[in-house]
Recover the amino acids of this structure.
């Protein structure tokens, strides 16, 4: 039986890094729009369960 804990992994190209996932040049390259907390006039509310629509939690018997 093979020992699965000793499976070979590919060699690393360098030591682990604490940097971001993308290269620094790519992070600042593209500008993005930031969402604002001010709702637009035509925004529709997100459907969800209102507190009075939620079923009662199950009652556990002792």
């Amino acid at each position: 039986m093979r020992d699965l804990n000793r499976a070979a992994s590919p060699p690393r190209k360098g030591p682990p890094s604490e940097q971001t996932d993308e290269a620094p040049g790519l992070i600042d390259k593209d500008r993005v729009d930031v969402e604002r907390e001010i709702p637009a006039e035509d925004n529709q509310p997100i459907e969800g369960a209102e507190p009075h629509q939620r079923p009662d939690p199950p009652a556990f018997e002792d």
